[in-house]
Design a protein that fits this description.
mainly alpha, 72% helix
Length: 205
């Protein structure tokens, strides 16, 4: 094939020659189309699309996404502060919002789930030094834990979120009040590992 092309690579070979079409160009109206088959293909495509949508919005699938987002967020939060890049901070904000949207669509979600979602939003904004947004979501999380009388673990962490957001805003005295409140509630958490988690996080504020 290559030899043939090389042999013909000369302008004189094609000079004065043209290409002849074997058939005349057809008008669009004369092109034969099997419209019934096209309709069947369209219906099949829509059916497949609906199946994909059902899969994506299936509660089990949503929960899988939520876990993946949470794991991704923690992978960045666990990095030393100096190693967190601007891209990391932007990504965890997007992931936290995506996770929250999925939680809102899950049937059977609890108010504790919603509270945790707000807490996570508060944390990622605090890490990104956006105190205003961090405080906004911390307040939402705390409101739920107070109204719904959530367990001590959730309440303590929501006060921790308040303390962290206020610290970012340089409201040191108010932050300390919330931090003390969080420590007080944390002392009532029965599970030793959960209690230590809160106490360790409070030390980072």
């Amino acid at each position: 094939m290559r030899r043939g092309l090389e042999a013909s690579d000369n302008e004189s070979d094609f000079r004065g020659r043209g290409l002849t079409l074997m058939q005349e160009k057809r008008q669009h109206a004369h092109v034969l189309i099997d419209w019934k088959r096209q309709d069947l293909l369209k219906e099949e495509s829509y059916f497949k699309l609906e199946q994909i949508k059902r899969l994506l919005f299936y509660p089990g699938c949503r929960k899988k996404f939520i876990l993946e987002y949470f794991n991704g967020i923690w992978g960045i939060l666990d990095k030393p502060e100096k190693e967190k890049t601007d891209e990391d901070k932007e990504n965890i904000i997007h992931s936290a919002h995506a996770s929250f949207i999925h939680w809102m669509a899950v049937e059977g979600k609890t108010q504790e789930n919603v509270s945790i979602g707000y807490w996570m939003l508060s944390r990622v904004y605090a890490v990104s030094k956006n105190g205003i947004e961090s405080l906004k979501y911390a307040k939402k999380a705390l409101d739920i834990s107070e109204k719904e009388n959530l367990n001590a673990f959730s309440k303590a962490y929501n006060y921790e979120a308040m303390a962290r957001a206020l610290k970012v805003l340089d409201e040191v005295s108010e932050s300390n009040v919330m931090k003390e409140k969080a420590a007080e509630i944390a002392s009532k958490v029965e599970d030793a590992e959960e209690r230590k988690l809160i106490e360790d996080d409070l030390k980072t504020i």
